[in-house]
Design brief:
Length: 164
């Protein structure tokens, strides 16, 4: 009987801990998006790791933290960063409770986009370590989009192949 009680308590603790982590992560992500919408530069970047990465919608946008700060600063200073509102979000936490990944659908000025990323728990706080933003394209419009991107993507593909 004691083993059963201990097992139930441990399971309950694990489930509650996982839900607590998800709630904290939800809050971090919401605050991060809110900081961008309200052009709060310091708050926005304080919610990221020091080596955080932001991957934008353009194939050339692979921003390491300082480069992303440099790129973003004029937008924040002008009071016009970006305004992403979550429509749906899935959060997953590892068993140790110190690493999480997520995906989300967002209402943005580009219409529906998908964000996905990784968070790490650092000194008890969840921080965004990696974020990827992509424009969601309905399957029936992919062919038209490919035609629109074809020329620029061909040039970029040649440049990238030349580097390797």
């Amino acid at each position: 009987m004691n083993k059963l009680i201990i097992t139930v308590v441990c399971l309950f603790t694990f489930i509650c801990h996982g839900q607590d982590a998800k709630s904290n992560i939800e809050l971090v992500l919401n605050n991060w998006h809110k900081a961008a919408a309200e052009a709060e530069f310091d708050t926005y970047f304080d919610l990221m790791t020091k080596d955080g990465v932001f991957i934008g919608t353009d194939a050339t946008e692979n921003w390491q933290n300082q480069a992303f700060k440099d790129f973003s600063k004029p937008y924040f200073d002008a009071g016009k960063a970006w305004n992403f509102k979550p429509l749906e979000r899935n959060i997953y936490v590892n068993e140790a409770g110190d690493f999480a990944w997520f995906d989300e659908l967002l209402d943005t000025q580009m219409k529906i986009c998908r964000g996905s990323g990784v968070l790490k728990k650092i000194n008890g706080d969840w921080k965004i370590a990696h974020y990827v933003l992509s424009i969601a394209v309905p399957n029936e419009h992919v062919d038209a989009l490919v035609l629109l991107k074809k020329e620029k993507d061909s040039l970029l593909t040649q440049q990238l192949k030349a580097k390797n």
